[in-house]
Write a structure and sequence with these properties.
Elements: H1 2-22, H2 28-57, H3 64-73, H4 79-94, H5 101-123
């Protein structure tokens, strides 16, 4: 249970840092920092959800996509949100290619939407841990 709480705190902290960078004026450095913060926020979120599923629901999921599908199946995401989470997972995986300008621009252009998806999802668990 303590590990779950720790992971939840990590999610909240990472969401705050992502929110902070998204409020900044655009520059290439801000874009790259936002992509990095998106990466670790995504990682913190899916790993928290994985832990939640294991501890609270008795379900084992070993990949981000399986975690989001399972979170949908227990009612924390709508079908539309789940589709967005799966796309977000693909974008997270593509962040290794942000040395390509067009990839960096595309991912950066969706990070605000991903933040708007991740924050309310995380908040649904506030009273669950």
């Amino acid at each position: 249970m303590e590990r779950l709480k720790s992971r939840y705190v990590d999610v909240l902290k990472s969401l705050n840092t992502l929110d902070e960078i998204l409020k900044g004026s655009f520059s290439i450095i801000v874009r790259d920092a936002a992509i990095q913060r998106f990466q670790y926020t995504f990682e913190a979120l899916w790993k928290f959800l994985k832990q939640y599923l294991q501890e609270k629901e008795g379900k084992i999921c070993n990949s981000p996509k399986s975690v989001f599908r399972e979170i949908f199946s227990i009612g924390f995401l709508t079908e539309e949100e789940t589709v967005k989470c799966l796309k977000m997972t693909d974008d997270r995986n593509d962040t290794v290619h942000t040395y390509k300008e067009e990839v960096a621009k595309a991912i950066y252009g969706r990070i605000s939407d991903y933040f708007a998806l991740m924050k309310p999802l995380a908040e649904k668990f506030k009273t669950k841990i």
